[in-house]
Structures are given as structure tokens and as C-alpha cells.
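Extended Data, panel c. Modelled sequence:
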Amino acid sequence: MSVTIRKPKSLRGEIIVPGDKSISHRAVIFNSMAKPNKVSVRNFLPGEDCYSTIKIMRQLGVDIDIENDKSNSPIIIVNSVGLHGFKEPTNILNCGNSGTTTRLISGALAGRDFISVLSGDKSLNSRPMGRIIKPLSEMGAKIFARKNNNYAPIIFSGGLLKAISYKMPVASAQIKSCIILAALRASGSTKIFQKAISRDHSERMLIAMGSIIKEDKLDIHIEPSELDSIDVDVPGDISSAAFWMIAALCHPDSEILIKKVGINKTRSGIITVLESMNAEIKIINQRDIAGEPIGDIYVKTSNLRATEISGDIIPLLIDEIPIIALAASFADGITHIKNAEELRVKESDRISTTVNFLKSCGVEIEATNDGMIITGNPDNSLRYGSFSSNMDHRITMMMAIAGVLSTEGIKIIDDETASVSYPNFWETISNLGVKIE
């Protein structure tokens, strides 16, 4: 199936984006491991990746039901089994395309007294897993994987977990969370030393659930501890909100309000960068839900200027860089994106895919080893073309927003991939008055 997106005369409306993907995964995994109880996860992201997590928790013996609220949004009912309550699965645990599922559940499976196997689709099984297998093995977990313990499928076959002191090779919430989940069941005090700040959803939620985790700037100390189950109302995903933010900023006649978005400081790098680009953004109605700050984001047409994006802010917006590159193509001046080599090992090589797409649309852009250089043009019109996202959901949505901004339109060959993280993406874009053919 394919779709063609064409630029509307104006872009106005209110949007509620799906629940945060990272928090949805964690709410189900952490509550599954909590002391036996029955809790609910509301505003759960009903995407393929998050359902992969639910399926695996069920295979591990966790009773999980799915109900619907009045607006037909899923409510996930988790019947916790305790920190040591998982059962041996009878089949391979299929993570689909979800790197978050793979890396977090690896921490939950390490050192269990049974055999389990994590695998996924072709894309997932080509992504680096040595970065989690190494610290888990140092903790005493018996793990085997393809190509010298670097790629899934990953086999877990027992082991006694002990505490370690671990220096993170990269700033990564997934690696950090994996180690923390193993450390909760290890003997002794585990210490993690980060190179830079990364998403802290795991720390926030686990502390709210009673775990013994102490933070000292970039250092994290974890003691073995049981978890209390908690109800979770998942805030809107800022990575999903980013697409509408850029659409509104770059369209010549726009005004959009995105409601109930998570604005955690370890995720809101997109706002910091866009403000540095002279974006008209306001955050209103700020409040906290279950330890996570949220707010409503108001954006409108802006005269963007170029900037440099590099260093410690990169881990805070790594998923948003492709859509930021699109915004930079409409900014006045030359934007440099550096230190983003992690994009090379996402669902696709997002540096190459983004650069090749925008170049085909007429943007002056070039790839570097760790990023890209974009020469912006405020009068950018974006040429028509027919494109594949390489089955990468964030690239698919970036291409759709390019269509919203293109005078000639953009045809997307694999539009269905948006459902991985944003199931009603096409419905939302249509409700804003965008023509889809």
C-alpha cells in the first residue's frame, strides 16, 4: 500500500498523541515483576512494539488483560508475579522490531534458573546487542548470542547475578535500564557510571515502586530490592508530538495545540533545540502525573534559523533527529548535527535514509560519519517523489510531514510502518485537513 501527501492551505487543530512508547514498555515490564497485585496501565501505546512486550510477559507466566475505556483506548490490566515469579517459556520470545523490548527484557531474564531465547525480525537481529550482553555476563549471567555474543537471537541459561561497577560506553537509557533490572536481583550494590545523561523513565518509575536506587549526578547506585506495583497513566509521547511541532513550525499558515505531552527533561531536548532555532513554542498547563512532568505544547508558524546540535543533548533527542533535519531544511543558514552515530544502528541507518530522502526532495544536505550538514532555505518547496522508509516507522512519519510541507506532494510506499509507534497517525494527519491520496 502507498499514500501521497499534499500540502494543505492551513494547518490548525488540537491533537492528543499516543502514550509514550518508552513508559508504556516499562509500565508493563516493571509491574509484571512487582509484588503480586492487580494494577492498570492507562493511555498505553497500542503499537506493535509495545504489544510485543505484552506477548512476552504472558509467555513468562504473567496474566495480562486488555480492556477499553470510553474512548476505546486500551487499558492494560497487569497481575504482577513478583521479582522471581517468571516461568520458563515453551517457545522463542519474539520481540518483533522492538529494541526496547529486547534490551529491557534481557535485564529481566538474565540469571533466571531457566532457559529462554529472545529473537526478532531481520532488522532487530542485525542491531547491536553486545552492549547489553557484556555487562550482564560480567554480572554472572550465562548468555549466548550470534557472532561472538553481539546479535540476537540471544539465549539465557541461568547464572548467579552479582553486583558490578560499570562504566557505560555510550549514553543509552536501554543499556542502563537493562543493567538496573538485573541489579534488582543481584547480590550486592551495583554502580553505573554514565558518560552523559539519558532518559530516566526507568529510575523514576522504579523509585516510585519502592526500589532502592540512588542518583549522584551521572552515577547510579542500585541495591537488590522488591517492587510495589502501581497504576500508571502514561503521558503523551514527545517523540510523536515532534512531528506535529515541526509541521506547524514550517507550514506558512499554522497553529497547533498538542495536549498532555510528557516533558521529562531527559526527553525534551527537541524543545530546547527548536527554541534555539527561533521556534514559536509555548508549554502551558504544566503538571505532574506519577512522577512524570507533562504539559500542553502550543506551536505556530515560525521563521526558523540554523543551529548546531551536538554533545550531551544528542541522547535526549536521538529519535527526533530525522524530523529535526526536515525542520533544518526550512531554516535560514547551515545546521550541523554531530555525535549522532547511534542513528546508524536504529531500525534503519537513519543518517543515510534521512539524507538520501531529503536530497531527493531537493534539499542541500550531506551525511557525515556521525550526523549531517543541512543548508536550509526558508522558501524550500520540496520536490515530488516516491519513497520507501526502509520499513522504519519514524522515517515514514518524517516523510509524511515532508508531504505536508511540499508544494508538489510526497508519495510514501510503505506507509503502514507508522503503526509501530503511532497507530492512528494517518487519522490524525487527516483530521488536520491534510489531503491523503
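DSSP finds 13 helices and 24 strands in the chain. This feature is highlighted in the accompanying rendering.
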